[in-house]
TrEMBL record:
Lineage: superkingdom: Bacteria
Protein name from the UniProt record: DNA processing protein
Short name of one Pfam family: DNA_processg_A
Family: Belongs to the DprA/Smf family.
Domain Smf/DprA SLOG: residue ranges: 130-327
Entries under InterPro entries matching the protein: DprA, DrpA_SLOG
PANTHER family attached to this UniProt entry: PROTEIN SMF
GO biological process terms, semicolon-separated: DNA-mediated transformation
């Protein structure tokens, strides 16, 4: 069994052809040695290539400022164990050199990191920096590039309400039915409801985790993650076995925002990770969509604040059709206007509406009385009354005109005369 350094040497000497095992192993080493979101280290790997960057980091040739970002991990090597552990749980390592890598969605992160200052003290904090991933561990049969091509992030509070979970599940189901992939974080509350909605529609869904793909967190979602892995994908920047440390939840938010065409915030408190994902989406030029909630709900305060901040350009959405119109193709994915119940009064002229309003409910009155109340001539009243009668809006009582009574409702729920 070759060592990491031997594989790296072979990969450095290789030219062209398929992805060299040493290159994949270099990326695997970086996924454990480097915490995602580190601007300087990503730039170092981008400048020198992953193989040469790892060789320099391990033998001390890398600048101290870069090597300090790894610290004691520089001398460690768990790549073979990580790859074997991934194989045992049917996971795989996908790297930028693979065909499956979602180059187009993640290009926004490349553009964002290029705008970061050179001096570290002026750079964005690591947990908020928009830095591309160095590699991704995947568990599931779906191809990452295909699943995220038409995808939407649905995020929200862990401490969700029944209203929020209902909306998230409906969105997940309706988006799945229309061929869109729901991407979320697999957490309690809104995330889980969105995943379950998509699964109920027999559609693949993607969960971006803050721990290894073999380590369900929260543990209560073990069955949910197993279902996701049957048709969709579990995605993580950390190798199998990695723990869900607190700072990693913040780091993975940028990946949820970057992989998708837009982010839907269903519920978010005043301080919420969902709000952080929403702001990452706007920073990356993605659509930011917000579901409003009751103004009395603490779980919707963050949603309403996002809508109030005009510079964010957040759009209010109330259905999957609204979401697809915002993130879909121009002219193709348009939402139908909200349906309005038709009534017999629709289409009445101004004169007919005035005469109808003048009709009493109980006792009938003469056309002269209707003309006085409606403010028109008696002949005009006589001209519109037959049409109103045909529409079952007015009724002749034998002594005058009145409003027609509403149709009686049958016991079975239908309308019409009682039997």
């Amino acid at each position: 069994m070759t060592t990491l350094d031997e594989d790296l040497e072979d990969a450095a000497a290789a030219s062209g052809g398929p992805v060299h095992p040493g290159l994949r192993r270099a990326r695997a080493w970086l996924s454990r040695a480097v915490e995602p979101g580190t601007v300087d280290l990503w730039r170092y790997v981008d400048d020198h290539g992953p193989v040469e960057a790892v060789r320099r980091l391990r033998d001390g040739r890398a600048p101290d400022t870069v090597r300090s970002l790894i610290g004691a991990r520089a001398e460690q090597d768990g790549t073979l164990a990580d790859l074997q552990r991934a194989e045992r749980c049917a996971a795989r390592l996908v790297i930028p050199e693979d065909d499956e890598w979602p180059h187009l969605p993640l290009h926004a992160l490349t553009l964002a990191v290029a705008a970061e200052p050179d001096e570290r003290r002026h750079q964005t904090e690591r947990t908020k920096a928009l830095v591309p991933p160095l590699a991704l561990w995947l568990r599931g049969p779906g191809r990452l590039d295909e699943l995220v091509d038409r995808s939407v992030a649905v995020v929200g509070s862990r401490a969700s309400t029944a209203y929020g979970e209902h909306v998230a599940a409906e969105l997940g189901h309706q988006l799945g039915e229309r061929g869109w992939t729901v991407v979320s974080g697999g957490a309690y509350g809104i995330d889980a409801a969105a995943h379950r909605g998509a699964l109920a529609a027999e559609a693949p869904t993607v969960a971006v985790l803050s721990c290894g793909v073999d380590r369900p967190y929260p543990a209560a979602h073990g069955a949910l993650f197993a279902r996701i892995a049957e048709t969709g994908l579990l995605v993580s920047e950390w190798p199998p076995g990695s723990a869900p440390l607190r700072h990693r939840f913040l780091v993975r938010n940028r990946l949820i925002a970057a992989l998708t065409r837009g982010t839907v915030v269903v519920e978010a408190a005043a301080r919420s990770g969902a709000q952080a994902t929403a702001r990452r989406a706007r920073d990356l030029g993605r659509s930011l969509l917000v579901v409003p909630g009751p103004v009395t709900s603490a779980m919707s305060v963050g949603c309403h604040e996002l809508l109030r901040e005009g510079e964010l350009g957040a759009q209010l959405v109330a259905s999957a059709a609204h979401v697809i119109q915002a993130v879909g193709s121009f002219g193709d994915d348009l939402a139908e206007p909200a349906s309005k119940p038709a009534t017999a009064r629709d289409g009445l002229s101004d004169l007919a509406a005035r005469v109808l309003d003048a009709c009493p409910v109980r006792s009938g009155v003469s056309p002269e009385r209707l003309a006085a109340v409606a403010g028109c001539d008696v002949l005009e009243v006589l001209r519109v009354l037959p049409a109103l009668e045909l529409a079952d809006l007015v009724q002749w009582t034998g002594t005058g005109w009145r409003l027609a009574p509403p149709p009686k409702v049958r016991a079975g729920g239908g309308s019409g005369a009682a039997p």
